[in-house]
Design goal:
9 helices; mainly alpha
């Protein structure tokens, strides 16, 4: 029951931030942006792990670095670096839950095609805008989040899979809106998918794997 009420509170605070908090003052905006993540980290802390290959500590560290990325994204490269560390930690956490399946293994193919598409689009956009110095960190980040998503697929854990895909969607909208062209309702789409992604990843701690 405690998890249920906490989930409702996470949803309410996410809605408040997305729809009601203005962009100024900046400190207030960052505070309310971080509140859902603090609640999600607490939500992860009280999860009870199932199975013998425990990854709760890694998921918590991943959530912590993503929370730092939230607060520091105004300084893009610093925030991106924190998210990158978070994705790497998530990857190791998911690899601890490895459950091989040929079908799930093939998920790397559409992820690779997605990487090629996004890399081409972003390289062109960054060159046109004169921001070539961002090409390497942005492309490295794309590769890291795709590997994280593939590692989530290999767990067979439905919550980990959904969470990782929502994270990819959120970051895709963010990068497209920042570097390629405006995305209608981008703030809502980015934050709704982002908070949902983190909630699902936190929930994956106590969820068992699907059958191969």
């Amino acid at each position: 029951m405690k998890l249920k009420y906490l989930s409702i509170l996470i949803l309410l605070m996410s809605i408040i931030y997305i729809f009601f908090i203005p962009s100024e003052p900046f400190a207030l905006k960052i505070l309310f942006k971080l509140i859902p993540m603090w609640l999600i980290i607490y939500f992860a802390c009280i999860q009870k792990e199932e199975g013998v290959r425990r990854n709760k500590g890694l998921i918590l560290f991943g959530l912590f670095f993503c929370m730092l990325g939230d607060g520091l994204l105004h300084w893009f490269v610093i925030g991106l670096s924190c998210f990158l560390i978070g994705h790497i930690i998530y990857t190791f956490g998911f690899l601890k839950q490895w459950s091989f399946s040929k079908l799930r293994c093939l998920s790397i193919l559409p992820l690779f095609v997605f990487d090629l598409f996004m890399c081409k689009k972003l390289i062109t956009a960054l060159q046109l805008s004169g921001e070539e110095e961002l090409i390497v960190p942005v492309l490295f980040y794309i590769g890291a989040i795709s590997i994280m998503a593939w590692a989530a697929f290999m767990t067979g854990n439905l919550y980990a899979i959904i969470g990782s895909l929502l994270f990819v969607i959120s970051d895709t909208i963010l990068s497209w809106n920042m570097f390629i062209s405006d995305v209608p309702y981008s703030h809502f789409l980015i934050m709704a998918t982002y908070y949902s992604a983190q909630y699902c990843i936190a929930s994956s701690i106590r969820k068992t794997s699907m059958q191969s």
